[in-house]
Structure formats: structure tokens, C-alpha cells
Design a protein that fits this description.
By secondary structure, the chain is of the alpha+beta class. It has twelve helices and six strands. The longest helix has 38 residues.
Length: 336
């Protein structure tokens, strides 16, 4: 196929398929790597440092902590978790890495909106490239593909290492699998950084200035993560356990409890049953007056981790795809 020159920029026009052809964007990809080598070096150092920290946590720190806890038990101390600070230290280390993996997309969104797209549009270097034989579509493809490859590879490696340490040392960690441990042990962590990259690129094209694009990209991706975390429990049906007034509903130790309350004539109802006090006869009379026939609890067992993980990953990737498509549409529209 023959490229047609853009009457406004002088850059050749080509299709997305031509831009993605083998070798078509290699020169532009090298330019992207050279232009953003500082960010690449910093990100690489961070990934290497976190990887080494995870390996240390999963081997040296975990073994030392178990040995210290065994010595504490042999000494007959009842409060080993309070006398031995390593318990909180191991969990804190995993928590810090979980926080980074969970919210690293904020840095990616800031980089994509500010340095990757917004700054080049404001300085005019993007238009200069478009007049020197690089089409806007090819330019955008290289701008997105190179960091996407780096982010996918590095984040996947960190997620796998985090899972290795987590799965091998569950006895040293808390049972909360819905906190930072939720996105960091599955593909959701990779989806979030790719979504941040796409949203940052779109913000850069929309605003064409680095600082406003940086702010909008970080705000938008943070809002997406906040909303999904808020409604994460609704992404998959819960399991409901019931009991009579003589006992409590079954709730697994590792479950994520979503709701609990009283059953009035067999159905969940918002009644203040906890106000019933006194002896057995008085409490029974109070519950009968309220119509309480039992109790219920709704929860996600740990087996729901992957359905919830894949649902959230799919939503985030869908947003990333829409943002990427909008960025391509915008670059074609503004350079047509």
C-alpha cells in the first residue's frame, strides 16, 4: 500500500495495520526508548529492587521469622506476636510491596499524560516527527507499544514473585485477601497499569499540555480504581449462610463478609435485634416480638478470588481498550 501525504502536517498517512507491521515502527520504538531512557532506567531499578526484596522476604526473612517464633513458643511465652517484632515486619514488608503494585498505575498515568504525550505535543516535537516521514498513527503506536511491553513484562514478574511469597508463607500473613493482596496476586495489577497508560495518552491528546494531562490522567485512573474497589464485592454473587436464633451462621475464617443481620419470617430485614438483652426467656420474647426467626451472613469464600479478579480485570481492560481507541480516533481527526 502507498502512503498518502497529510495536507496539514506533511506526514504520510497510513492505516493502523501498516503501523503495526513487522519492522514498521522499529525506528520510532528506538527513538521512544532513547527519549525516555531516564524513566526506563528508574523503573527498571525499582522493579529489580522490589524483586530482590520479595526474594529476601520469601526466603531469609520468612525462615528467620519462623525460627524466632518457634524459639518464642519453646520459651513458653504466650504473646509471641507482640514480643517478636518480625511478625509485623514481614507483614509490613508484604504490605508495602502490595501498595506499590496496587497503586503503581498512578505513576504510569502521570508519565503517560505528562512526559509521554502531553509534553511532546506542547513542545511541538510530535509535529516535527510527523513532518519527517513518521505518520501520526505510527508515532502513537510506538508511543503506546514500547511502554506497554515494558510495563506488562515487569509488572507480571512482580505479580508472580508476590504470589510465590504469598502462597508459600500464608502462615505468616493475615487472612485478609481483599486488601492490597487482591490486585497484586493476579492480572488486575497488569490491567491497571495498561489502563493508566491508555488514559494518560488520551488525556495528553485531549489537553495537549503536560501538567493538566498529568492531573486528569491520575485523577481518572484513581477514580476508576476507587469505584471498582468500592463495588468489588458486587462483581460476583455472594454465598449466604443462615442459622436459627440458637446459633450463628457459618462463616469461614478466610471469607470476606459482605453483610449480616436478622431473618424476619425467613427473609433478611433491618431490625435492631441486638437490642434484645437479658436472660434466655427475655431474649426469646424480644426476638419473637420483632419476628426474628434466625440470622444470616453473606460472604465471598476464598474460592471467589479468581472470579472477582477476572471480572475486575475485564472491566479495567475494557476501559483501556476504549481509551486507546479514542486516542487513535483523536490523533487521526486532529491530523486529517
Amino acid at each position: 500500500m502507498t502512503a498518502v501525504a497529510n495536507p496539514r502536517t506533511g506526514a504520510p498517512q497510513e492505516s493502523a495495520a501498516e503501523a503495526l507491521a513487522p519492522g514498521a515502527s522499529w525506528g520510532t520504538a528506538r527513538t521512544v526508548l532513547r527519549l525516555h531512557r531516564t524513566a526506563l532506567v528508574l523503573w527498571t531499578l525499582v522493579v529489580i529492587g522490589l524483586s530482590g526484596f520479595l526474594v529476601w522476604l520469601g526466603t531469609v526473612a520468612a525462615d528467620d521469622e519462623r525460627a524466632a517464633m518457634e524459639a518464642c513458643d519453646r520459651a513458653g511465652q504466650d504473646l509471641c506476636d507482640t514480643t517478636f517484632s518480625g511478625w509485623s515486619g514481614f507483614a509490613s514488608g508484604m504490605g508495602l510491596i502490595g501498595l506499590f503494585l496496587t497503586y503503581s498505575f498512578i505513576a504510569v498515568a502521570a508519565f503517560a499524560g505528562g512526559a509521554l504525550i502531553g509534553r511532546e505535543l506542547e513542545n511541538g516535537t510530535a509535529h516535527l516527527a510527523w513532518t519527517q516521514g513518521i505518520s501520526p498513527v505510527r508515532w502513537l503506536t510506538a508511543k503506546l507499544a514500547v511502554p506497554a511491553l515494558v510495563l506488562t513484562t515487569s509488572t507480571t514478574a512482580l505479580v508472580l514473585l508476590h504470589r510465590w511469597v504469598w502462597d508459600g508463607n500464608r502462615d505468616l500473613l493475615y487472612d485478609d485477601w481483599m486488601g492490597e493482596a487482591f490486585p497484586t496476586r493476579g492480572p488486575a495489577a497488569v490491567a491497571y497499569v495498561l489502563c493508566a497508560l491508555a488514559v494518560g495518552a488520551l488525556s495528553g491528546f485531549l489537553l495537549r499540555r503536560p501538567l493538566p494531562a498529568l492531573a486528569v490522567a491520575t485523577g481518572a485512573t484513581w477514580a476508576l480504581s476507587f469505584v471498582l474497589a468500592l463495588y468489588r464485592g458486587s462483581l460476583w454473587p455472594t454465598v449466604t449462610s443462615t442459622s436459627t436464633t440458637d446459633g450463628e451462621p457459618y462463616l469461614p475464617d478466610s471469607a470476606w463478609q459482605m453483610a449480616s443481620g436478622a431473618l424476619v419470617h425467613g427473609r433478611p430485614a433491618n431490625v435492631e435485634y441486638w437490642r434484645c438483652e437479658g436472660g434466655d426467656a427475655e431474649m426469646r420474647r424480644c426476638l419473637d416480638d420483632l419476628g426474628v426467626t434466625g440470622y444470616y451472613t453473606s460472604y465471598h469464600p476464598e474460592s471467589h478470588y479468581w472470579p472477582l479478579q477476572l471480572m475486575e480485570t475485564g472491566i479495567v481492560l475494557a476501559v483501556a481498550a476504549l481509551a486507546t481507541a479514542a486516542a487513535y480516533w483523536l490523533v487521526r481527526r486532529r491530523t486529517a
